[in-house]
Design brief:
Number of domains: 1
Helix content: 25-40%
Structural class: alpha/beta
Strand order of the largest sheet: 4-3-5-2-1-6-10-11-9
Radius of gyration: 17 Å
Strand content: 15-25%
Order of helices and strands: EHEHHHEEHEHEEEEHHEHE
CATH class: Alpha Beta
Distance between the termini: 22 Å
CATH superfamily: Acetylglutamate kinase-like
Number of helices: 9
Oligomer: single chain
Largest sheet: 9 strands, mixed
């Protein structure tokens, strides 16, 4: 039985690259879409926020000397491309989706309107939230937190390359220790880079739990949705 009625799934842009340096890996997007579709078929309402790192990394060298606001807007547009790719993969599986963009582009996506987003979820559609918050200086982690709070999600599920939150980077330090659970305050005080501080503080202030889990393990999205002990719970 599902542990949650409504979740916000946060995916990094790199998750769509499938191990490549940058770009979109079609098979990886399909496999992710299949897992998300299975969770939706179990009756769980899903909102998705996808980062843009896989596309923006390809132009990052050119963006180094750019104005920060311009670079952030480029990153937001990269998330729209990723959102459309995920939406297309889901639609090809017969799963209804809506891409909702914080930056208005009517020919490409619906404008983000909170009540409409909730209605889509209630009707069984997967809502994919693109273009961040439309404001520079805010990460996609913060955008995901904002959307989760707005749609009244019960959990933010953040898919990463590692199986939870560690006391230090497990990809660099083999002796790193994983937490099964950790408090918001400890994440902030230890400076653990699992999400940016603004997002963690927003979750803390609104008592919104965050589950950090390994996205590269097939079936983890379903296991997480069913309340199985995967990853680290920040609460």
């Amino acid at each position: 039985m599902a542990a949650y009625k409504r979740v916000l799934l946060k995916l990094s842009g790199e998750a769509l690259a499938g191990g490549e340096a940058f770009g979109i890996h079609a098979e990886r997007v399909k496999s992710l879409a299949r897992e998300v579709a299975d969770v939706a078929a179990a009756g769980i309402q899903i909102g998705v926020v996808v980062g843009g790192g896989n596309i923006f990394r390809g132009v990052a060298a050119a963006a180094q000397n750019m104005d920060r606001v311009t670079a952030d807007h480029m990153g937001m547009l990269a998330t729209v491309i990723n959102s459309l790719a995920l939406s297309d993969a889901l639609e090809q599986m017969g799963v209804p989706t809506r891409v909702m963009s914080a930056i208005e582009m009517h020919q490409v996506a619906e404008p983000y309107i909170r009540r409409r987003a909730i209605r889509h979820l209630e009707k069984g559609r997967i809502a994919i939230f693109a273009a961040g918050t439309s404001n520079p200086y805010f990460s996609t982690d913060t955008a995901a937190t904002l959307r989760a709070l707005e749609i009244k999600a019960e959990l933010i599920a953040k898919g990463t390359r590692v199986d939870g939150v560690y006391d230090k980077d497990p990809l660099k330090f083999p002796g790193a220790v994983r937490f099964a659970e950790i408090s918001y305050l400890e994440v902030l005080s230890r400076g653990l880079g699992v999400m940016d501080a603004t997002a963690i503080a927003m979750c803390r202030d609104n008592r919104l739990p965050v589950l950090v889990f390994n996205l590269n393990t097939t079936g983890n999205i379903m296991r997480m949705s069913m309340g199985e002990a995967v990853g680290t719970l920040i609460h």
